[in-house]
Structure formats: C-alpha cells, structure tokens
C-alpha cells in the first residue's frame, strides 16, 4: 500500500473467528447451502464484503478442484485476516464435521447403523432440501441480471443434468460465451447495478468492496507464491514419509495417502463428481469397505455439517479399521488414523490453491477481461446449484427411485421447512436444529412410548 492510500477497513478478527466456528457446526445443505450462509452473513447482514467481492472469490473457487465452499471460506478468511485467517477459516469449516463423522464412524463399526442416527438423518434431509432451494433462489436473484445470464444458467443446468458434459467444460464454455457476448453481459450488469443501487447499500458501505485498496498480503509476490507451494509440498511429503517409515512401503494408511491425494485433484464438479472414482478405488480396488457401507457413508456425509466430500473421512475410518496398521486392540485407533489421513490429503491442496492463487485473483478486479468471463461463470454456477437441488429433491422424495412411491412425509416436511425459511425468515441454524430435534422426538415416541 502506498502512503497515499487511505487506511484499509478492517473486520474484527474475534467476530470473524466466532463466525467461522459457528459455520462449521451449521454448514448443512452441501455447497449451495454453505455458500448461502456465508453470503447472507458476510454480505447481507454484517456488510463485511460487497456483493462483487464475494462473487469474485466464489468464481475462482468454482474453477478449482476441491470443495468450493470450504475453499471460499478459506479465501474470505485470508482476504480479511491474512494467512492466519485463511487457515483458521478453512480448518474450522471442516473440523466439526471431522470430529462428528469420526465418532459416528466408530459407533457404526461397533454397533451397526443405529436407529436414532437413522431417524436423525431422515428428519434432517428434508430440511437440507429446503435450505438448498432457498440458496438457489438467493444466489440466482443476485447473479442473473438479464436474459443472457438466465440463458447461461439454463444451459448449465441442462448440461449438468444430462451428465454428458464435464463440469470444467461447462464453466469454461460459460466464460467463453460471456466473452463472445460481452456487450450483453456488461449492459445487464450495469442495469442491475443501477436497479439495486438504492436498495442494496452493500457495494458502497461494505468494509471490503471494489474500491477498497488492496491490502499488502493480497498483492502478488513471486517469493511468497513459491514459499506457499513449497510449504504445501512439504506438508504432503512429510506425512507420506512418516507413514512409510512407521509401517513400511505397503500399508493401508500409505495407500490412502496416495489415493486421496489423486482424488483431491479430480473433484471438479463437487463431491458427486468424484464419488465414482472413490467408490471404485475404496470398494473394488483396495476393499476398504463394502458397497452398502459406502452408501451409508454417503448418507452420513449428506446429513452432517461440512463439505459433502467429508464422506472420505468415513471411508478412511472403515478402511483403517478393516485393515489395521496397529495390531491387537488397535483397530479403533487405526480407524481414527485412517480418517485423519484421508481428510488431510483430500483438503491439503485446497489450502495451497487459495493461499498461493488468491493474490493473483485479487489483481483482476475491474478488468473486463476477467470480470466478464467470471460473470458468465457465476450464471453457470446457479445452474449447477439448481442441479444439486433437483438431485436432493429426487433422492429425498423418491428414496426407492422414480418407479417407487413418493415419500409423502419427506415431501410435507420439505414444504414446511420452505415455508419457515421464505415466509417466516427462519435462520438456517434454527431450521437444522429444529429438524434434528423433530427426528429425535419421533424416534423416542416410537421406541419409548409406543414400543416399536
């Protein structure tokens, strides 16, 4: 920052830290719901970031392999509070889910699928559907400024739903179309800015907006970039070397480190895009768990806070438990080590991508060669989120497939949660906790009072 630059507005580190802690416990609904929570809190309610700054960060994260919501949390934490803020935001986003899934995995291998756990998940799933639908509505209302943006979102949805077009191709195509029709994009964005300018003060009053001077830590420096990349490589190599040294060149945890390192680079399009690869490796090649167990793990990942890719924690635990590196009574501890290894190697690249690439992204503000294609990507993201919402609706409403009957109970609960979200403006936290309480009460009613 030069001496002529005004002081950079600052966000309270303590307030931000508390938000990241809370987010880790309430981040249900997959990436759409998680991004919606961050947008509602950081942009709309607290005014820490402007709409454009938030979407600029989101677009970059959508281009990367890995869990986009966790990467967005890391990016925003880094932007507000340097490397420390980024690491804390990214870790706290995952940590509650890691602990919860590890504990539930231990209960799963010890007792099988617990009845109260199944009731809890069944009750939360309709709430998750409602949260995702609300997220699509909220983001779409802000990102789709005109007919061209609506067209890009529609094409993106159709491409994702067909399953014929890879996720990176969808985003790159949207960026290319936006560049080809940049006049339409710029005109629609300008009209939208004028239309909401008076009603939405976030652009001008946000602590960090497009006119905020770039902080020193967000300026690109070659030396800093190289340092981050080398540190990331070291944090990958040291655990791999330790696993080799402790248990030799052929052991379950070392296999997991290599496998999930490769899987981390294949997560374009979210967790569902990489699940076939994880299934093939974990179930068929390494035989860490069975197919039905993998499905139980997916249900666990969908029904707990945190990224959907946290299913790898469940896979790691069951693999470590089934093929333990510790003999005797060390099966459970081997499972915990497997969960930690799978999670570490899955998420490590995401931190490197953000901390190394963030400064380059921050240099592209207000440059149409970057903002126009990123606007196209934003529209495509809405279509991707809508596809995820439809996916959830299908699997929650028709658990036995489209040929089976509609689950009227789940449908009624979904409509009820949509009403309290849209009409009564309940927070996501209240919805999730209420859904969990409802599920547990239903389980107690059946088992304790009715006796079945």
Task: Describe, in plain words, how this protein is organized in 3D.
It is built from 18 helices and no strands. It has 452 residues and is mostly helical. It has a domain at 223-351. α2 crosses α5 (115-143).
The residue fraction in helices comes out at over 70%
Major sheet: none
Given helix and strand content, the structural type is: mainly alpha
Distance between the termini: 68 Å
Topology, number of strands: 0
Using the CA coordinates, give the radius of gyration. 22 Å
Provide the residue-averaged pLDDT: 85
Summarize the SSE layout with pairings.
Layout: H1 13-26, H2 30-45, H3 51-63, H4 68-111, H5 115-143, H6 147-162, H7 167-180, H8 182-197, H9 202-205, H10 222-247, H11 252-264, H12 271-285, H13 291-303, H14 311-322, H15 331-362, H16 368-397, H17 408-422, H18 428-449
